[in-house]
Amino acid sequence: MTNPNNPTGKYFSKASIKRLIEAAECLGVYLIVDEAFYDFVDGYEPISSLLHEYNQLVIIRSMTKMFAIPGIRLGYVLASEQFISDLRTIQPHWSVNSVAQEIGLLCIEDNDFQQKTRELMKIERKKIFSFLAHNDYLYSDSSTNFYLMKDSFSKESKRLFLFLLKKGLIPRHTYNFPGLEGNWLRLAIKSPDENIRLMEALKQWRESSL
């Protein structure tokens, strides 16, 4: 499972995760939680402390999202001592190079950057969601740096998708998300200037569709 969820951006509470882990233990399976975007969530309740209570929990984290270093492909796993020991037996040699390791250490130490990013996301998210609500767009109540959005006057989003592409904006389609069937677009909360560009384009779309 992903927490926060992809593509809605909503996240599960620690209590909810705990119930899922207990169910996994009863079934004798692992609960793997992908926390790739957890550090964008303001006030996120860490579940890493549950590792001391449950051996069936595995947490996967990425450093490429918060620190914008996708080319480094850096992340890590949190799990029981036995699980990590077993994982090492199948880990490829030199799976993380020394340059990536040094970059990772610098990122972890930069707490100010993380806090400033969360604060910026919070401000920009509120601004965008207010705009969407006042212009008759539907959106998921996301807690992270991406969200689902659709035109409340349209059943599908293909035309809006193509319209935004022509404006130089690249949304993520949802044709490969079961249940969404391409009816929603996934968008990211970006810099203030980029968010203004998006809102201006969506305003033009709304004016042209009335």
TrEMBL record:
It comes from the Bacteria. It is an enzyme of class 2 (transferase). Its cofactor is pyridoxal 5'-phosphate. InterPro entries: Aminotransferase_I/II_large, NHTrfase_class1_PyrdxlP-BS, PyrdxlP-dep_Trfase, PyrdxlP-dep_Trfase_major, PyrdxlP-dep_Trfase_small. Keywords: Aminotransferase, Transferase. GO terms for molecular function: transaminase activity. Pfam families: Aminotran_1_2. This is Aminotransferase. It comes from Cytobacillus stercorigallinarum.
